[in-house]
Amino acid sequence: YLSRYLETNSSDSYLNLDGIYSEILKVDGVTSAFVSCNRENVVDSNGWEPHSRVYVVDGGTNQDIAEAIYRKTDRAIQEMGDVEVTVQDIQGNDRIVKFYRPTNQTIFFKVSVLPAGLVITQITDKIKEYIDSVKVGGLITQTNAVETVRSAELLTNIQSLDIQFSNDGITYATVYQLDYNKKVVGSLVTV
């Protein structure tokens, strides 16, 4: 039995985070997602219930997302979420699927360029594009921002480019981790 099951399901992931994540990303209109779980016997530092799964989905319709989650999950595992959608199983029974929508996070960034006095409007525009492309719960890094600028061939005559990020406009760092339930909306620049 197990051998047959593995043979017929080896091409897709089922009942695990990878399978759920992949299925959610297939939903029309979904632009990004975060899928994780709390495997512990206690509420974790995020406030997730013991032995629960968490899905944060940007884009798509609630019904389509719920059906995608339902197709790839074991209903005995608790789900966290403030969006609740009813899905019918193949026997016509109503099942509740829960997930979250991301909340918005504004990211500030500052740019230092040498030699001083260069017009850097194109550079800051590319950095904004990069920041706005970061997925739900994603990592924003100076390295990726510089690579975005470099790939646009905007580093001619620049000796040094330093980019730092902040969520409050006060404390800056070269790496910023979005919370699991955050997505970037707009970015403000200080030079």
What's the short story on this structure?
This protein has 191 residues and is α/β, with parallel strands linked by helices. The protein is 26% helix and 35% strand.
Structural category is: alpha/beta
Report how far apart the termini are.
63 Å
Number of helices: 5
Shape: elongated
Uncertain regions spanning at least 5 consecutive residues? 1-11
Radius of gyration: 21 Å
Report the portion of residues in β strands: 25-35%
Which strands sit side by side, in order, in the main sheet?
Answer: 1-2-3
Q: Give the number of DSSP strands.
A: 10
The percent of residues in helical segments reads 25-40%
Structure description:
The chain contains five helices and ten strands, in the order H-H-E-E-H-E-E-E-E-H-E-H-E-E-E. Residues about 1-10 have low confidence and may be disordered. Helices cover about 25% and strands about 35% of the residues. Helix 3 links the parallel strand 2 and strand 3. With about 190 residues, it is α/β, with parallel strands linked by helices.
